[in-house]
User: What shape does this take?
Amino acid sequence: MNTNPADDALLALAQSFREALRQSVYVMRRLDSEEQLSSAQLGVLKMALDGGARVGGIARNLGVKVPSATEQIIKLEGAGLVKREADPDDSRAVRVAATAAGRAAVEKADRRRNEFIAGILGALSQSERDAVQAALPVFDKINHSVQY
Amino acid sequence: MNTNPADDALLALAQSFREALRQSVYVMRRLDSEEQLSSAQLGVLKMALDGGARVGGIARNLGVKVPSATEQIIKLEGAGLVKREADPDDSRAVRVAATAAGRAAVEKADRRRNEFIAGILGALSQSERDAVQAALPVFDKINHSVQY
DNA sequence: TCCTAACAGTTAGGCTGCCTAAATATCAAG
DNA sequence: CTTGATATTTAGGCAGCCTAACTGTTAGGA
Assistant: This one.
């Protein structure tokens, strides 16, 4: 009962998938290592772009706990990329909003990172790129299923 | 010159790809958080499975520096999952070999992790799984191109 | 009105995993 | 037998995440 062919195929796919995950972590590290803004900070900063986000919401969206978000926010504030202000509707809450410098930093970091990745993807064949493109929405779906 | 359609498509793909990378990190964290053996340790342990690997080789294969590998090896040794012995051919080198307990731990961790992922993949449609399957070799290729 | 439970965030302390630099030991070549 | 390269470990440091405990605010009764 442990040799169901369908299950075997699924487990084999899972194994390959796990290897890809591991590689992704590696690629991310590489991406991070050549930038001034870490992925963690970039993620927080992006949420602070439009109007202002609450700390709890940022943490939830990034899949980390509130203190971890606070930590990044404090760093970004120190760098002048976001400002923190009391939420007018709820004095317990804090609204985090990107400054002009913060918006510029996001744009620059995003561009640099995209160019790095585009450089890699550009070296692939068109069919390879198509395969990646087709898989990306599925990856997205997988992530949501893991959510929480 | 910044509106080359091909470049734009590539950059858009890169952007989506980056999002997938971020999600992958998230999924990996989730995977790690419910296991006794961390991914870092599992990676090292797997290399120690057949016969015995050298510290430098392990580090190179995992894309980390030698001291980082040593750190994990020491932990695994403390847990009785690997043993370290001088390389008979080169006394500078150390051969790291999995113990019986180490082999069992790899099997168990691999099985649990694969089952977790298989559970997610199993909830997808066949065409979605096909898309993932088709993209995995490309991910592999991408990783190698980032290597070093 | 006042008390209390729930909630938002920060602070404190701790862990893992990675890194660089420096120390130790061995090898290999001249 | 010296010297430079190589293999690993040790020491010290940093980022990012976590839990627990603390502060302040809000909201729902009694």
